[in-house]
Amino acid sequence: MKPHLCILILLLSATVGAASAAETTTTAEAQIAITGITVNPGTLMRGDTGTVTVEIKNTGSSGVAISRAALYSDGIAVVNDKTYNSVGTIGPGNTMSFTFTVKASTQDGIYYPVFYLDLRDSGSIRYSVPVTVESTGIRVSVVSAPETYPANSKDTIVLSVGNPRESSVNGVTITPSGEGVKSTRTAVFLGALAPDEEKTASFEVTASQSTELTFDISYRNGINEHHTTLAVPVEIGERAVEPDMVVNNIGVSQSGGAITLTGDVTNAGLKDAYSVKVTVDGPATPTDPYPVYVVGGLEPDDFASFEVTCTAQGTSSIPLVVQYRDADGKTFTETVTVSLASAGQAPEAAGGQGQTRISGTGGPQNARGGMGMFGSFGGGFSQIPLLEIFLVIVGGVAVVVAWRKGYLGQIRNRMRK
């Protein structure tokens, strides 16, 4: 054999051997790729339990034997550190995942536990997994709530719930509680809140005493349940925004034993008043034609005239009673004392029940106070001397007719003779 041919054969053999050796020594580590890292929940709160999942893939054309897989702690406690002490072989093109349970028993911060993969033949793979611990909870605030709560009246409280965290929270539920307070909703479920998302919830509550209304807001961060609370003070008292009935321009007239009371009733509050009625109380006795004067509804700053007829023996004053309802149907009563000796003067206020006053459509004729040509008279229309006005008009017409016919001239001539 020629010398140069021998040299060529030796070079080719060396090249093939070197390539085979390179493939044998690099394939095991080079074939394994980290294809996915999942931390659930995305951001742990202090004390939370979560999971770290690492997914690998064999990108080569031959199987790779794996002895074990582990996650080494870096401030984050690993609960199942011995789960993958024996793994096996991952075939070509296949994927495999490893899930580790971790507990954030540490301060807030970013930690880097190390994923370790021990290959059976030779070598190993290491990968640092970032895990964030951040203990900021969801934020709850009052959007609207009354300053005072009329006893046993329905009021509305609106809350806002926001998520300032970097990851979502789930199962957000608001539950109200408080001694002496009842809510039409025992709980409100808001569900999931994405990062920087806000939702609102409204509660209709009825309070019988001054107390503190507590809202418990529960939510889940992954599998971990958390709670935050919000206390809202509840003070029983009257509110200026409610209907407020004011009676003025009272007039008193007597004819025999019959007494007629007239005047105006005004809603000085900021809410509508309903089913407004005016009557008298003992010792007076309501009588026809207007024992009870029905005003109807009165909007804020609206007024209506009224007329009430009654009898009262042996008394110098009469309790004038104004009754009305609010939007929830609760009945209120306002009482003023009218002196029979001071007709037309302002009445003396008496201790009445309720805190609201009235305005709306007037009387049986349903005429709104101050509205229309006749509506401003309300039930007092009967007080106008219609007969006298009619006689004056008829007399004036008769004089004009007599003058045009010349009757007045004839009468004058006769009187001269």
Automatic annotation (TrEMBL):
InterPro entries: CARDB, Ig-like_fold. It comes from the Archaea. Keywords: Membrane, Transmembrane, Transmembrane helix. The keyword Transmembrane helix applies. Residues 37-112 form the CARDB domain. The chain crosses the membrane at residues 386-407. It holds the Pfam family CARDB. The keyword Cell membrane does not apply. This is CARDB domain-containing protein. It comes from Methanoculleus caldifontis.
